[in-house]
Amino acid sequence: MSNTTASPPYEVDECRGVLRVFSNGSIIRTSKPSFDVPVHDDGSVAWTDVVFDNVNNLSLRLYKPTTINATSKLPIFYYIHGGGFCIGSRTWPNCQNYCFRLASELQAVIVAPDYRLAPENRLPAAIEDGYTALKWLQDQAEKPDEWLGEVADFGNVFISGDSAGGNMAHHLAVRLGKGSAELGPVRVRGYVLLAPFFGGTIRTKSEAEGPKDAFLNLELIDRFWRLSISIGETTDNPLVNPFGPFSQSLKEVEFDPMLVVVGGSDLLKDRAQEYAKNLTDWGNKIEYVEFEGKQHGFFTIHPFSDDSNKLMILIKRFIAQNSKSN
Known about the structure:
Elements: E1 11-15, E2 19-22, E3 27-29, E4 45-53, E5 58-65, E6 74-80, H1 93-106, E7 109-113, H2 125-142, H3 146-149, E8 152-162, H4 164-176, E9 188-194, H5 205-209, H6 218-228, E10 258-263, H7 269-281, E11 286-291, H8 298-301, H9 306-322
C-alpha cells in the first residue's frame, strides 16, 4: 500500500482578487467587488431590481430619474457591465454609480442586466443571457408594469456594453439585424460599444506593445479568454474574433447606427479601430471616437473626469441623433 497522499489543490488562476480557480477545478468567488468604492446615491435616480430569468436566477437593475425634464417618454438605455466574462455585477458600486449618472444625464431609463459568468458558465452563455434580457423587455412592452410603463419609450432603445459587455452588444447587433424586427414593439435604435472586448490569435500592435502595467494588460486579457471560451478553443473563436478565419462574414450584415469608443492607451484599441473601420467600409453608420492617452475603463474608474464628461456628451448626442423622432 502506498503511503503517498494526494497533494492539496493549488491556485492556477486569479482575477482581480474576486475569482480564484484551483488545480482540482474548484472555484472560489468573493462577494466583495474588485472596485470597492462608495455608492453615490443622492436620491435623484430611483432604482429597483427585477428577475428576468428564473431558470438561471438572473436579475437586472432598472434606473430612472426621479425628476423628468422631458415632455415625452424616456429612451431606454441598456448598460451591460464588463469583467472579461469572468467577474463583475450590476450590484458593484462602480457599475451602480455609472448607471446613476447615465440615468440622470441622459434622461433615460437604464437597464443593467447581470449574466452568467465564466468559468462556471463559458461562452456563449453570457451572450444568450443578454438576448434573454432583451426578450424580457419585449414582454414588458406588451404588458408594461407601472415602474416602466409610465416613463419608458419601448420604441426608442439603445444597447450599450462596456468591455465584455461591448462584445455582447456586437453579437446582439448581428443577431437582431437592422431594425430589430423580432423584438417588436421594442425597437433598437443604436448601439454604444465602450472598449469592446475582442481578441484573436494574431497580436495587434497595441496588444504587443502595450504597457505591462496597464489596467487591462495582455496577461489578464489572455487569462479572461482562457477562462471564458470552451476548453481547447483559441481566440479565433467567432465569439472572440469577429473577423477571424472561422467567423461569419459581416460584409452583408446591416447594422443599426453604432458608436465605438476606446482609450488611446487601451490594449484593445487596435481591435476596436479595425472593427469600426470594417463596418464603416461595408456601408454602416459607425462613429469611432478615441480618447488620447486613456486606458481601459477610464469612464467608470474616473467617472467625473474631463474625458468621462466628454464621453457622456457624446452618448447623449448619439441618442438624440438616432432617436425615432429623427
